[in-house]
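If your schedule permits, I should be very grateful for your opinion on a structural question. I would ask you to consider whether the tokens describe a fold that such a sequence might reasonably adopt. Thank you for your consideration; the sequence and its tokens are set out here.
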Amino acid sequence: MNLHEYQAKDLLSGFGVPLPAGDVAQSSSAAQNVARRLPGERYVVKAQVQAGGRGRAGGVKIVDSVAEVRQAAEDLLGQTLVTEQTGPEGRSVRAVYVEEAIASERDIYVAVLVDRQSGRVALIGAKQGGEDIEERAAANPSIIHTLLLKPDGVPVKGTFPAFAKKIGLTGPLSAKAVKLFEGLISAFLKNDASLIEINPLAVTASNDLVALDVKMVIDDNALFRHPEMRNFRDRDELDPVELQAQENEINYVRMDGDIGVVVNGAGLALATHDMLSDVGGVPANFMDIRTTATSLDIAAGFDLLLSNPNVAAVLVNVHGGGMQRCDTIAEGIGISMKRNDRTVPLVVRFAGNNADYGHTLLRNYGIAYTEAQDMGDGIERVVALVRPEAA
């Protein structure tokens, strides 16, 4: 789950991360009132959309008076902001974040994330931050420094000061950097985050560190441990189809192909996509049925496939386990196909727990389908249905 900047900063404020004073506003008058409460005489007004590149797209405005804060908020609220991360459709600005402007002598990049190669929490950083950090890192990966932490997130003694030195935080800044790193990692672990990124981390003339912009992502699968975050999800920022799927215990992403894919397990789904691509198939979606999904949840997910006019055939590739049996998925498919007018060719590969019973249920529902013997067979059959020349 992506957080807005104001939500991320609110969370990090409880972990000793130094932040500019600020608050969120949904109207120009509220933005003006926020500015009146802030120290200093310069202010930053930021569009709250979950996408990078806001500054380059005109979504961040630095102004010199409370009156200008109101005007900046008025200009931003309601507009569609298009950045390199939003796509051409952009995102509607429904809130702005107003904070005191901090004069930065130097911009640093710092982030905490899960290193996929090692499976460990990693602290990464660069001497120079900024919106173009990704482009610069792609051109010269050596600018990014990485510190892998122990499984419990605790660093080996002395590694934090050494890491601070690598990204140019020495002398009186070293101790402040260590405290910042400790706060970030604590926030990362306690909130089940998958990413916390500070870009830029400002170094001020008085040798203070201030997190000017923060991006934070929370692991969706851990949200049951954080009921306080239940209302953090911005429904307006999400694809309504993907949101509906999430509400029915299904991880779902729309894609551009013509083969609907029903799978239980993210790894199995990725393998299925790879095998489809290898033989000329193009998936219309990514679907991972969670172990907690009921047959009615699965039916709602299958409804999404049938509602997609681009789907010409569906491949069901399921390996039943102890918590998600083949018959539960078969029942969900049966419910969906009975209540929808549209039908598409269906190829089904069931393996594992209650595989035979799953096939029995589909036949009892009167559903016409092709039974596949294994993954490879199912993939060849579904591709042959939509793209005979590729089979």
Observations:
- Residues 239-390 form a domain with the Rossmann fold fold (CATH 3.40.50.261).
